[in-house]
Specification:
Elements (H helix, E strand, L loop, with lengths): L1 H8 L2 H55 L1 H16 L5 H9 L4 E8 L15 E3 L2 E3 L4 E5 L3 E3 L6 E9 L5 E10 H4 L1 H4 L2 H5 L1 E6 L4 E4 L16 H12 L2 E5 L7 E7 L5 E8 H4 L1 H47 L14 H26 L5 H8 L8 E15 L1 H5 L4 H21 L3 E6 L2 E6 L6 H28 L6 E17 L4 E6 L1 H12 L4 E5 H7 L3 E10 L6 E10 L7
Length: 578
């Protein structure tokens, strides 16, 4: 029973459940955690910005109501100056008492204060038994004083007046209801629902909305770290936010100082209340993740059969391929990863067929990369060919036939194998295609299917030069093996040939046929040891890249008339000849 259990967990279905669900779970968990942390920070930052805006609005309401009597006084005296209408302090007080929120107005005349002298003329005058004023202006408005002695919360401020000459006219004291100043704020929803308070510059409570603050007189009086941090921030900043230790913070507070009054409005909030939306999101995310994982399990159980069937088909065909039976391509039933696996399998089979074709058609005579390039042509595997101009090169070891008569067959094959290993590597480096080996001779052609004929002529010349240079290293190797050294002659020609697959359906090779091949063989026969001979057709392409050691004419078998040949000395890179 234990063995069956282990095998069951090794099934494809069990592995899919583990390999699919584990990454999905990790992605969901990590994504949810990162999203939760980011959103949590964003919500706290959003509350900070919102709190400052709320407090700024509340401060505006307080200052607007508090400065309303001062604005009325300025308006009355401005009208008095413009209309030349005398105005007494008692009349100003009467107007002020009509303003909503004003509890009482007191007048003190002729305070004896002096202001900077002015050039305007005007003075007090008697009218109707009362002292009348013209050209009066406000010298100073005292800071509001919070007063609770009158039995109800009130704010007292005084307005000092002077005439145009700078002499003091008097002082008006205005007592306003503190609750009236808070009227607009009280109507705001956050003032009722959240914890808020107003303190003076010393931190003394003037108003608060939280029952926990009842009986307390000063902010920070209970040594609360958050309240003490607010007091410190209030000394240097007009507004801001402060958080209690911990993340997320247990409490967050924002404050804003009034511009005209030495008061500060403070708003408190619990961190969990700020983060309530993200907490709800977290709970919903956990529930949704559970549902998603359940659906994934259900889909795995429903579709794993199809996946297993496709994989079994691939496994069955793979066994046939191991026996050399490629068969037909497997049909892909889906566009998912299994479908991609089927496509990759079919591509693999195609690649194996191409590999066999390379082995059968080109053998080991063509560079594999160049062979793949040739196979991209649809007709590469068909018998037959095309007529085009190519570059042909033939090399031959000078004096090898008499030398081979003095050596054993084993040594001859050993020497040839080492010689060919050196030469074949060089030929493949220059994209040469080996047509065949004729004893110790190598017939190569350079097909312009991957470039121009000019490029291939230059490649052939470079290849021949490198082959001759390699003979020095080869002969040194032979000397260390106590074997005779060799010398080589090379002929290069360019001309029209038929290029294609030559042979039968059972055996073929990629090669060339034409008179240019025979001419190349004749040119090679005229080359001396360590010499590279080129025909006129080759010289026409490389005249600017080579130096010639000699030029001569020769009678080539099968060719009418004399043929001009040249021996190459130095080869220059394209555009590098001095």
């Amino acid at each position: 029973m234990e063995i069956k259990k282990i095998k069951k967990h090794r099934t494809l279905q069990g592995k899919l459940i583990i390999l699919l669900l584990l990454p999905v779970f990790l992605i969901i968990f990590s994504g949810g955690a990162l999203s939760f942390l980011y959103t949590r920070t964003a919500l706290i930052n959003q509350w900070n910005e919102s709190a400052v805006l709320k407090l700024q609005r509340a401060a505006h309401y307080i200052e607007m109501r508090l400065l309303k009597p001062v604005e009325l006084i300025e308006t009355l005296f401005q009208v008095s100056r413009e209309k030349q209408i005398p105005l007494s302090l008692d009349e100003v007080a009467a107007y002020l008492e009509t303003i909503e929120g004003v509890l009482a107005v007191g007048v003190r005349k002729d305070t004896g204060l002096q202001a900077p002298a002015a050039h305007n003329h005007g003075a007090m005058m008697a009218f109707g038994g009362m002292t009348q004023f013209r050209h009066t202006r406000i010298l100073d408005v005292s800071q509001p004083v919070y007063d609770t002695d009158a039995g109800h919360n009130a704010v007292i401020m005084s307005v000092t007046l002077v005439d145009s000459a700078g002499s003091g006219n008097g002082r008006i004291e205005i007592k306003m209801s503190f609750n009236y100043l808070l009227k607009d704020i009280i109507q705001l929803g956050w003032w009722q629902s959240d914890m808020a308070c107003i303190v003076d510059k010393a931190g003394k409570y003037m108003a608060h909305t939280n029952m926990t603050m009842k009986g307390r007189h000063y902010l920070g009086g209970e040594n609360d770290p958050l309240e003490q941090a607010i007091l410190q921030e209030m000394k240097t900043a007009v507004s801001g936010t402060v958080q209690s230790p911990g993340y997320p913070p247990a409490m967050v507070a924002g404050f804003y100082k009034l511009e005209q009054v030495p008061w500060t409005i403070i708003l408190f909030a619990k961190g969990k209340n700020i983060l309530q939306p993200i907490t709800n999101y977290r709970n919903a995310f956990v529930f949704g993740s559970g549902v998603l994982i359940f659906l994934i399990l259900l889909l795995i159980r429903q579709h794993v059969g199809q996946i297993v069937h496709q994989i079994k088909t691939l496994s069955k065909n793979a066994r046939k391929i191991a026996r050399g039976e490629y068969g037909e391509p497997v049909k892909a039933n889906s566009n998912d990863e299994i479908g991609q696996l089927v496509e990759i399998y079919n591509d693999m089979v195609t690649g194996l067929k191409e590999r066999d074709f390379i082995r059968d058609s080109f053998g080991r005579y063509v560079d594999p990369e160049f062979a793949k390039l040739l196979l991209r042509h649809p007709d590469a595997g068909n018998l037959g060919g095309q007529r085009r101009e190519v570059v042909l090169m033939m090399s031959d070891i000078r004096g090898f036939t008499p030398l081979s008569e003095t050596l054993s067959p084993e040594i001859i094959i050993r020497i040839l194998n080492q010689y060919f290993s050196h030469m074949i590597k060089i030929i493949q480096d220059h994209d040469g295609i080996i047509v065949d080996f004729f004893g110790d001779s190598i017939l190569v052609f350079f097909d312009p299917v991957t470039g121009t004929i000019e490029d291939k002529v230059f490649c052939a010349v470079q290849c021949a030069s490198r082959m001759q240079s390699e003979m020095a290293a080869f002969n040194e190797k032979m000397r260390l093996q106590q074997m005779p050294g060799l010398d080589m002659g090379i002929g290069i020609n360019a001309g029209q040939v038929v290029v294609g697959n030559i042979g039968s359906e059972t055996r073929s090779k990629y090669g060339v046929v034409g008179s240019a091949v025979n001419i190349t063989s004749r040119i090679q026969a005229k080359a001396q040891k360590k010499e590279i001979l080129i025909s006129e057709s080759v010289y026409a392409y490389v005249r600017d890249q080579v130096d010639i050691t000699k030029k001569f004419t020769a009678k080539l078998k099968g060719v009418e008339g004399l043929t001009t040949l040249r021996a190459i000395d130095t080869i220059y890179a394209l555009g590098k000849r001095p």
